[in-house]
Design goal:
The structure is a homodimer.
Chain A: H1 7-12, H2 33-42, H3 45-49, H4 52-65, E1 71-72, H5 79-86, E2 88-91, E3 95-98, H6 105-109, H7 121-134, E4 140-145, H8 147-156, H9 164-172, H10 174-198, E5 202-207, H11 215-221, H12 223-232, E6 240-244, H13 251-255, E7 261-263, H14 270-277, E8 282-287, H15 296-313, E9 321-325, H16 335-349
Parallel strand pairs in A: 1-4, 4-5, 5-6, 6-7, 7-8, 8-9
Antiparallel strand pairs in A: 2-3
Chain lengths: ~350, ~350
């Protein structure tokens, strides 16, 4: 069945579109009262993510409010290590934790790629259900954490201010780190393949913590695994987007990675990003999410600045740009400002 | 009186030195048991910072252990807004807070530059005492927060994940934001002048949160105030260093700011930073502090990589480099690894 709105996929192929497509990282989230209601019904964040009907419901919620150009699967970047046996749990206000973080070489050697249609079936069922419910209105994005970012949590056992444990492992025992990253990469490829098979029409890898690495460590411990995913993931013409927070130093390398799109945060202008990637890849981004705290007029003006910046760096053309934030939305953001943002993207970029 | 060790000051003037000088951000800190003892004696962090004898004691502690090439005044970046009447306090594990954050234009209009030798006399007394105790062994660095970074806390009332309130003020009411930044800049200039008069032999401005701004907002709300400080601060041949976390996008502009040095975090190589600043300014940095969690051998190898990276970008010369971390030390770091780091910097860079 043909998509009713394929702007997002066309932009990722750098084809011409009637206006710039837009979706927002964490568009299904706590800033929406209906999300908070479903979350309460589910009893827990993980319960919601693991129940396909509830994951489908919250995925669709922002699309009922705003004319967004893509849906993104509601899930978590740590479903894969959870299926690998680490025991994911959430403490309110503290983020994700693992009951059994990796503590030794034996812990790493014991890891294997989970079976996607049994151990992660709830994710694939959610993808199938969302596709059915979307009924061709907009494409559905599937996603995974990046190998480095997943490994960060597996070694630390949760979030960290400075990722000292995982960085110590990387520099003290690079062979063990590469063994870990290798098996996680195998699992990520299998996970994204299964989401693709279940119906995901685009795929995004979140390397949320890649930007905390020095350039030489990034080139050793994150980039090669992103490139492996881009090269080995059989996905036909389904586009793959790599999002790295704080990745300005690596834009040229990411443009050569084999992925179709790169997500960019707001610490680099799209003008510069477009010039440095020279039409090799689509760019997604990059409004500072905090701009949503501005007044509606300020939001509109900031949106226009991002759209213009991309066009300037892309030789006067708006093609090849997916509008997004440079990072996810926060719970205290105003849904009315999201409506203003989406409206301004479409209005101002209309050809 | 001539300094016994002037490597640090010579490096900031880009003069030749016998080996690369090194100091570490937050070298006086909780990773040292003797610091924790003094902290306990003081009863509170602020009590320690506001008592010249205790501030002097903790400033000197790391120099008794390690052959560091500079001392840095023990204080806090929020002493200035505290003296402006906002009521600084600390909650353990939560960072700094203000009792009376800025909530209105009237709050901003009420601000004035504090008198340095009365309201901030405890800082100047600490500087004088430390100079006396150092007895010319190494130079003493005075410091301040940057206008943008100080304003962040003044508007938010404490730390923030996304600095939504201060960014909203900046985009909703740029005139009010510039009024605030103007008076804070006046205060910072007076504060650094007074530290210089009291004996500080180098001055550093910490723009810790400048890197959370998009390039256009950085150029409007942070960079001009750093440049104003560099131009208006009467300091003779006392060097001024600007440290911005996440500042790689702005290296060229910072090199033209009028300051003598730029502190660089670890997300850009010193090779690139040196090439882009082309000998116009000294560079300080930039080992990822998490590397101190590595083994002694790994620490040594990472130190050599930073030293070599600078030399490569600086046309084969090590001159003009002050070795430092890319951010401050953490409480759980091992003092023995600091000894290894300092030793390797001096040993490997010896001419």
């Amino acid at each position: 069945m043909a998509l009713k709105n394929d702007r997002f996929l066309r932009a990722l192929r750098r084809e011409s579109v009637d206006c710039t497509p837009v979706w927002l990282m964490r568009q299904a989230g706590r800033y929406l009262p209906e999300y908070r209601a479903t979350r309460q019904q589910a009893g827990s964040f993980l319960g919601m993510a693991m129940t396909p009907e509830l994951a489908c419901e919250v995925t669709l919620q922002p699309l009922r409010r705003f004319p967004l150009d893509a849906a993104i699967l509601f899930s978590d970047i740590l479903t894969v290590p959870n299926a690998m046996g680490l025991g994911l749990y959430f403490v309110d206000g503290e983020g994700p934790k693992f009951e059994r973080p990796l503590r030794s070489q034996a812990d790493i050697d014991r890891l294997s790629v989970p079976d996607m249609e049994t151990e992660l079936r709830y994710v694939m069922d959610a993808v199938r259900l969302i596709r059915r419910e979307l009924d061709g209105s907009v494409p559905l994005i599937g996603f995974s954490g990046s190998p480095w970012t997943i490994a960060c949590y597996m070694v630390e056992g949760g979030g960290s201010k400075d990722w000292g444990k995982v960085k110590a492992l990387a520099i003290n025992d690079p062979a063990a780190m590469h063994t870990l990253l290798g098996v996680v990469t195998d699992a990520v490829i299998a996970y994204l393949s299964a989401q693709h098979a279940a119906g995901a029409q685009a795929l995004q890898v979140f390397d949320t913590w890649g930007g905390t690495l020095s350039p030489s460590m990034y080139r050793e411990f994150s980039l090669p695994y992103l490139t492996r995913i881009a090269h080995e993931l059989k996905r036909g013409d389904t586009p793959l987007i790599l999002f790295v927070k704080g990745n300005a130093a690596h834009l040229e390398a990411l443009a050569e990675s084999g992925a179709e799109g790169v997500g960019v945060d707001w610490t680099v202008t799209l003008d510069e990003a477009a010039r440095r990637t020279a039409g090799k890849i689509a760019l997604q981004g990059n409004l500072d999410p905090a701009m949503l705290y501005g007044s509606p007029d300020a939001v509109r003006s900031q949106v226009r600045a991002v759209l213009d910046s991309y066009r300037t760096g892309n030789g006067g053309s708006r093609d090849g740009h997916v509008f997004n934030l440079g990072h996810g939305m926060s719970p205290d953001m105003n849904p009315e400002h999201v409506a203003v943002l989406v409206d301004e993207v479409h209005r101002y970029s209309a050809r």
